[in-house]
Write a structure and sequence with these properties.
Elements: E1 24-28, E2 34-40, E3 43-48, E4 51-56, E5 64-70, E6 77-81, E7 84-88, E8 94-98, E9 106-111, E10 122-126, E11 129-133, E12 138-143, E13 148-154, E14 162-170, E15 173-180, E16 187-192, E17 198-203, E18 211-214, E19 220-227, E20 232-238, E21 246-253, E22 263-271, E23 274-280, E24 293-298, E25 306-312, E26 317-323, E27 326-331, E28 336-340, E29 348-353, E30 361-365, E31 368-372, E32 378-382, E33 390-394, E34 401-406, E35 412-417, E36 423-427, E37 433-437, E38 446-449, E39 452-456, E40 460-465, E41 473-479, E42 484-488, E43 491-495, E44 499-504, E45 511-517, E46 524-530, E47 533-538, E48 542-550, E49 555-563, E50 572-576, E51 579-584, E52 588-592, E53 599-603, E54 618-624, E55 627-632, E56 636-641, H1 657-660, E57 661-664, E58 672-676, H2 678-681, E59 684-691, E60 696-703, E61 707-710, E62 716-724, E63 727-736
Antiparallel strand pairs: 1-56, 2-3, 3-4, 4-5, 6-7, 7-8, 8-9, 10-11, 11-12, 12-13, 14-15, 15-16, 16-17, 18-19, 19-20, 20-21, 22-23, 23-24, 24-25, 26-27, 27-28, 28-29, 30-31, 31-32, 32-33, 34-35, 35-36, 36-37, 38-39, 39-40, 40-41, 42-43, 43-44, 44-45, 46-47, 47-48, 48-49, 50-51, 51-52, 52-53, ...
Length: 741
């Protein structure tokens, strides 16, 4: 996970309001590092990146899930009240779910942020009143059961400088935390939970305040005091006199230098005034840097709050939930880490249920999508139906994977790692590792043209010969100052602080054929290309469009047009036949007309957690096969389209689909009969049916059954998938509502 340097936000006092989302979101991959977790009636509900999942925990580790739901932004925190689950999903707001049957949660309502730029960070309850931490304020709603109504707002903040991060309520008091770079704003605020009037403020001078939780049987308020980028802070306030809270206990949580283990007390569960606290990368003194720990505090006696013990949590961890004798930990690379705490002083590690990893990069070839997941290696998805990516296989080789690229024929996957074996080559079929390059070869861009990879390693381009995937080798290394680079039609484009360069790389050449020299106050940063059109962000000018012309003898850059960009330099750019796309970590994805550079569309994206300008957020943006792929660190890889005529997907890539599945009649006027050739497929398989929006409308595991009859479907386009051994073996589409002859 990346190092967070100082958690200091840019002090901007105005926030632009962006247009409505009108780039078409098709779907996203699912599962990532586990960030939130709650236990209910034999199941744990998890927030894995932007995916809500329900895992059955009664059959031993690792657990299996049978339900998942995609959000478009990261799940931050979750809470359970009665038989309802409340999910705080950043810019997607708050969702209420009925979990009477936790194997199949039912959505009750979505409560979206009520103004631009708001994000839901946490929730607290007082009867049927909801207190929601909304980044720049606390919003109060009445839960009417199947609906909600707004009551009030209080505690306004400026999210670019200080943010409401956590909230809890008890009796007549509501407490919330503010993370602020302004010393006189950072800390804990107490309000009357009936009148919403201010009572008092406790200023926190060390670390940045993160979250609060009330004592059960006393007047204590426990504060997850956040981090100073290395060490974290936990403390307890006595609020017997709410007008004058008094700190009675404090504990500095150790982290490792250089961001290797940043301690950040973040979430807690209170079990009869024993506090279990997730600390991100908190360490146990004298225990080394290779393991992180939760902390357990005994607060049963307000006169003697003290650290009770440590519980190992694997690597970075963000939340936990307890159902004795088990504690389930929300972890990054380990997913759900389970311990038996029958003897709390000697917890027993029961194993891991891997949910995924941080989302770094992706590449697409035909119906395949490979996604780099940091310490989790990489995953291979089937996107035959881009409105429902299906996990096909997972690399089992350890290491820190942050780049993936398909070979030109799609038969191999080249993966870059930040750990040992800098590049590894895998067969796509089976993900068998077949070769390695020992040394590091890439830190930034990773471009493929024919049988050569052009890989950016600091200010050096490694040209890697992959003509024989079983014997890859660095052909040569060229020193070149680089801000960004990409390949299009045999030309490698490079931008830096002095100019823009076109390198002819056909026939294994590396020859400069054209360049643009910039003025002394200008730098060329992000770039993208489509055919012979090049789009470059140039500081002190804006987004510039060039044509790379060829007169039969020489190449030359010709400037076409440019526009100033209000939002400044994009983090990433991409282009396809339908437009040019600019992504920003805290502002979203913008679509522009390729000819005029006028804005034509906007997609909010998951946006950066807590508006951090230099962390998380978008990691990669590219276009292939008329689709847009957006990789976000904590929100998976989203698939979008800017094609107004997009309405269907290709048939299956499985050559023998017709032998496996017959749908009749198709189109149909009423009932649909699906026949399965069980002699080929076997007796055990699963089928899923999706509507045109990607929603699953029917799924079932079948045994010894070869015919499915569907009735009562609404008119429209549907997709059928047949799954065996967790792999899609056939995919077909059919139409309902057309009279069959």
């Amino acid at each position: 996970m990346k190092k967070i340097l100082l958690l200091i936000l840019v002090l901007l006092f105005t926030k632009p309001i962006f247009p409505q989302n009108n780039l078409q979101f098709l779907s996203a991959t699912t599962g990532a590092a586990c960030h939130a977790i709650k236990y209910y009636n034999g199941y744990v509900l998890t927030g894995t990146g932007s995916t809500l999942r329900s895992y059955y925990v009664g059959a031993g580790v690792p657990f299996n899930y049978g339900f998942e739901y995609r959000y478009e932004s990261q799940i931050i925190r979750m809470s359970i009240k009665d038989h309802f689950l409340f999910v705080c999903a950043n810019y997607d707001g708050l969702t209420k779910w009925d979990i009477s049957n936790p194997a199949n949660p039912v959505k009750i309502y979505d409560l979206l942020p009520d103004s631009a730029g708001m994000a839901t960070q946490g929730i607290a309850f007082k009867g049927d009143t909801l207190f929601i931490a909304q980044l720049s304020k606390v919003s109060v709603y009445k839960d009417n059961g199947s609906s909600f109504s707004k009551i009030a707002d209080f505690g306004y903040a400026q999210p670019s400088a200080w943010s409401v991060t956590g909230v809890d309520a008890k009796g007549n008091l509501c407490a919330y935390t503010v993370f602020s770079v302004w010393p006189n704003k950072n800390g804990v605020y107490l309000y009357n939970s009936n009148s919403f009037s201010f009572i008092s403020y406790y200023q926190q001078t060390f670390c940045y305040s993160e979250n609060v939780i009330w004592g059960k049987n006393n007047n204590l308020l426990h504060v997850m005091g956040g981090t100073n980028s290395t060490n974290g802070y936990f403390y307890t306030l006595n609020v017997s006199n709410p007008a004058s809270p008094q700190k009675i206990f404090a504990d500095t949580v150790l982290g490792a230098p250089f961001g290797l283990a940043m301690a950040l007390p973040y979430n807690a569960e209170n079990h009869n005034d024993t506090l279990y606290v997730a600390t991100w990368g908190g360490l146990k003194p004298n225990a080394g840097f290779n393991y992180c720990y939760m902390r357990v505090y005994d607060a049963t006696n307000p006169a003697n709050v003290h650290l009770l013990t440590y519980i190992p949590a694997g690597l970075w961890h963000f939340d936990m939930t307890i159902h004795h004798p088990y504690i389930y930990v929300a972890s990054e690379w380990y997913g759900i880490k389970t311990f038996n705490i029958s003897d709390i002083m000697n917890p027993v590690d029961m194993g891991n249920t891997v949910t995924g990893g941080w989302n770094h990069y992706a590449d697409n070839f035909g119906n395949w999508l490979a996604v780099s997941n940091e310490g989790y290696g990489f995953k291979l998805y089937d996107i035959t139906n881009p409105m429902n990516p299906v996990l096909y296989d997972t690399s089992q080789y350890k290491g820190f994977c942050f780049r993936t690229k398909f070979s030109a024929d799609g038969e191999y996957i080249f993966a870059c790692y930040g750990t040992y074996h800098g590049m590894r080559v895998f067969r796509r079929d089976g993900l068998e590792k077949i070769s390695i390059i020992q040394q590091a070869v890439c830190k930034q861009r990773f471009e493929l043209y024919q049988d050569r990879i052009y890989s950016q390693l600091d200010n050096k381009i490694n040209i890697i010969d992959v003509a024989d995937p079983y014997n890859p080798a660095v052909d040569t290394s060229i020193t070149f100052t680089i801000n960004d680079m990409m390949v299009s039609n045999g030309i490698l484009y490079i931008s830096n602080n002095t100019g823009i360069y076109a390198m002819n790389i056909t026939n294994h050449n590396f020859q400069q054929v054209a360049s643009v020299t910039l003025a002394g106050n200008q730098d060329a940063t992000a770039l993208t290309a489509y055919n012979n059109e090049l789009f470059v962000f140039v500081s002190n000018k804006g987004l510039v469009k060039y044509h790379l012309n060829f007169d039969g003898f020489t190449y030359s850059f010709v400037e076409d047009t440019y526009i100033a960009l209000t939002n400044g330099v994009p983090n990433f750019m991409a282009a396809d036949t339908f437009g040019v796309y600019l992504s920003y970590r805290t502002k979203g994805l913008f679509a522009l007309n390729r000819q005029t550079l006028a804005q034509t569309g906007y997609y909010r994206t998951g946006l950066d957690y807590r508006l951090y300008t230099d962390q998380y957020g978008v990691q990669n943006l590219f276009c292939k096969n008329n689709l847009i792929f957006l990789s976000e660190y904590q929100c998976q890889t989203s698939i979008l389209s800017n094609d107004n005529n997009f309405s269907s997907v290709p048939e299956t890539k499985t050559n023998y689909a017709e032998e496996l599945v017959t749908i009749y009649p198709n189109p149909s006027g009423s009932s649909v009969k699906i026949s399965i050739n069980s002699e080929i497929i076997g007796n055990n398989f699963e089928y899923k049916i999706y509507d045109a929006t990607g929603k699953i409308i029917k799924s079932q595991i079948l045994n010894l059954k070869s015919q499915i009859i569907l009735i009562g479907l609404n008119s429209g386009l549907y997709f059928l998938e047949i799954i065996s051994d967790k792999k899609i073996i056939a995919a077909k589409k059919f139409v309902v509502g057309v009279r069959a002859f």
